[in-house]
Design brief:
Blueprint lengths: L3 H8 L3 H8 L7 H13 L6 H8 L4 E6 L5 H16 L3 E6 L4 H12 L5 E4 L6 H4 L7 E4 L10 E4 L1 H14 L5 E4 L8 H14 L7 E2 L5 H12 L7 E3 L3 H13 L9 E5 L3 H5 L3 E4 L2 H13 L5 E4 L2 E3 L4
Parallel strand pairs: 1-2, 1-3, 3-4, 5-11, 6-7, 6-8, 8-9, 9-10
Antiparallel strand pairs: 10-12
Helix pairs in contact: 1-2, 1-3, 5-13, 8-9, 10-11
C-alpha cells in the first residue's frame, strides 16, 4: 500500500509538500499540487481521513447528545442544528443516551480524543460539574440555561412559559390540574421548573397529580388512564409534549371523557397534531433553539441566548 513518501518520490516533491496538499494548505504551487494529485491517482492512494483530522486538529463534525433519537421535540432541535451545520459545511453525529450517564461520558470522551470538534447537549444525565472539564478540549454548548460561565447556552425560560400555561388554565376556571413529564423533578431541570411554576400559580402540588415516564403517545394513553381513575379526576392536563397530549386525547375519546367539557388538554411542541385535535400547545421554538446552539458553537464567546415562547391555539 502506497504512503506519502511514495507519493513524494513519484511527484518529485518533499513529504511536507504532500502533507500540505492533503490538508488543503493554500500556499502550495499549483504545479506541485497537480503533481501530487497525479501521483496519488497513479498509486491509487486513499488518504486516512482520521489521521488528517488529527494533524489538522479539526474534523468539521459536531456531536449532538440527546436522550432519544425518535422524539418530536428533540427532532426539532436537531433539525435546527443540522440545517445550520450544513450551511457551514459541518457534519452532525447524533449521540442518543436514554439518560445513561455512562454512555454520556463515552460521548464526552470523543471531544477529549478529538474525534469530534465539540458537542451540543440537548438534555443531560451528568451534572455540569462533571461535564465542564471536557470543555477544555472542544466547544460544549447547552440547550438549557446553565450558570456555568464557560458553557455557552441557547435556552428557553421554561419556568415563565409554564407559569403562562398554568395561569391560562386558572383563568379558564380549572383548579384541579395534573401534568406529565419525562423524569422526576430531582433528575430534570425542566420538570423542576414545571413544579415551581405550578406552585407559583396554584400552591402545593399533590403527588398524584404529576406523572413521570411519559415519552411517547402510548405513554399518553397510560397517563389518560391513570388520571381518569383518580378519585378526583383533573379537569385539565398539561402534557409535556403534543404526542403525549394526543395519547391522553385518544384515551379520553375511547372512554367518554368529554373534551373540553370535562377535560382540557395543553400540549408542548406546536406540532400539527395539536391543530388537528384542537388543543393548545406551548411552542418553545425548538428549531430556532437548535440554530442558535450551532451559532454559539462557531463563536468563541460564552454567550447565553434566550429563545422566546408562545402558547399557541389558546382560547380567549
Amino acid at each position: 500500500m502506497a504512503n506519502i513518501k511514495d507519493i513524494a518520490r513519484m511527484a518529485n516533491v518533499s513529504v511536507s509538500t504532500v502533507s500540505r496538499v492533503l490538508n488543503q494548505h493554500p500556499y502550495v504551487a499549483e504545479e506541485k499540487r497537480l503533481a501530487v494529485r497525479q501521483a496519488m491517482e497513479e498509486l491509487d492512494y486513499t488518504p486516512n481521513r482520521t489521521a488528517i483530522d488529527l494533524i489538522r486538529g479539526k474534523t468539521n463534525t459536531i456531536g449532538v447528545i440527546l436522550p432519544y433519537s425518535d422524539h418530536p421535540c428533540f427532532d426539532k432541535i436537531v433539525n435546527g442544528i443540522t440545517k445550520t451545520a450544513f450551511e457551514h459545511q459541518y457534519a452532525t453525529t447524533l449521540l442518543p443516551t436514554k439518560y445513561d450517564a455512562a454512555f454520556e461520558k463515552k460521548y464526552l470522551e470523543m471531544v477529549r480524543t478529538k474525534k469530534i470538534d465539540g458537542l451540543i447537549i440537548t438534555s443531560k444525565a451528568n451534572t455540569w460539574e462533571e461535564i465542564l472539564p471536557y470543555a477544555e478540549y472542544g466547544r460544549i454548548i447547552a440547550c438549557e440555561y446553565t450558570n456555568q460561565a464557560e458553557i455557552p447556552c441557547a435556552y428557553n425560560d421554561r419556568k415563565s412559559a409554564y407559569i403562562e400555561g398554568f395561569q391560562y388554565l386558572k383563568k379558564r376556571g380549572h383548579e384541579n390540574i395534573a401534568f406529565t413529564c419525562v423524569r422526576e423533578a430531582e433528575q430534570s431541570p425542566s420538570t423542576a421548573d414545571k413544579v415551581k411554576a405550578f406552585e407559583f400559580v396554584y400552591g402545593p402540588l399533590e403527588e398524584h397529580n404529576i406523572l413521570a415516564g411519559c415519552n411517547h403517545m402510548t405513554d399518553g394513553e397510560k397517563a389518560g388512564e391513570y388520571f381518569h381513575n383518580l378519585n378526583r379526576k383533573p379537569t385539565a392536563i398539561y402534557a409535556n409534549s403534543d404526542e403525549i397530549a394526543a395519547g391522553i386525547y385518544l384515551y379520553a375519546q375511547k372512554h367518554n371523557w368529554s373534551i373540553p367539557e370535562e377535560l382540557e388538554i395543553i400540549g408542548e411542541g406546536n406540532l400539527s397534531v395539536s391543530r388537528v385535535l384542537h388543543f393548545s400547545s406551548l411552542d418553545l421554538n425548538l428549531e430556532q433553539l437548535g440554530e442558535a446552539a450551532f451559532s454559539l458553537f462557531l463563536k468563541d464567546t460564552p454567550a447565553k441566548i434566550k429563545i422566546p415562547h408562545q402558547l399557541v391555539g389558546k382560547k380567549t
